[in-house]
């Protein structure tokens, strides 16, 4: 896929390594990374106190970012969309973006067990370097909505197993 305009999508639980992979993918020439957490924090940081707040603000952000992503792809710029692709609804929105372009895509599935993600989350929270601290209860609540991509969704999936 070298040289081809590509939309990179990220699917994995909280603390599975999505943003780390996004950074790595973003080092490729002609590629930009658009990070949901940065935009949400900058635009709605003080409003984000609950999962319902996240859902509301993320929906607003998608309405703003979506056309920008398609413009970038149509201009020949590859995009790493560091937004969660963890539900069929989120992936449906992403599919709609793809349908507005001729870009290729890769849905990166980070196959990391919950226990590993929780250990990483605790370390991340302890370090205090992430824009959002997620509690274990919030992690479990959000993880209940995690749905891996199904073949009938039509995505080109690349599985990234947990690094040992």
TrEMBL record:
The keyword Cell division applies. InterPro entries: P-loop_ATP/GTP-bd_All4644_prd, P-loop_NTPase. Keywords: Cell cycle, Cell division. SUPFAM superfamilies: P-loop containing nucleoside triphosphate hydrolases. It comes from the Bacteria. One of its GO terms (biological process) is cell division. Gene3D superfamilies: P-loop containing nucleotide triphosphate hydrolases. Pfam families: AAA_33. The keyword Cell division applies. This is Cell division protein ZipA. It comes from Limimaricola cinnabarinus.
């Amino acid at each position: 896929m070298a040289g081809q305009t590509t939309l990179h999508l990220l699917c994995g639980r909280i603390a599975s390594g999505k943003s780390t992979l996004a950074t790595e993918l973003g080092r490729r020439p002609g590629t930009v990374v658009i990070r949901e957490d940065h935009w949400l924090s900058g635009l709605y940081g003080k409003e984000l106190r609950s999962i319902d707040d996240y859902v509301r603000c993320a929906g607003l952000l998608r309405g703003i970012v979506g056309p920008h992503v398609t413009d970038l792809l149509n201009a020949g710029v590859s995009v790493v969309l560091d937004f969660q692709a963890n539900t069929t609804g989120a992936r449906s929105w992403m599919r709609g973006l793809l349908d507005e372009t001729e870009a290729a895509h890769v849905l990166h599935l980070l196959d990391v067990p919950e226990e590993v993600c929780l250990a990483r989350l605790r370390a991340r929270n302890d370090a205090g370097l992430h824009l959002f601290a997620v509690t274990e209860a919030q992690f479990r609540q959000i993880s209940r909505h995690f749905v891996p991509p199904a073949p009938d969704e039509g995505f080109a999936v690349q599985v990234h197993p947990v690094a040992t």
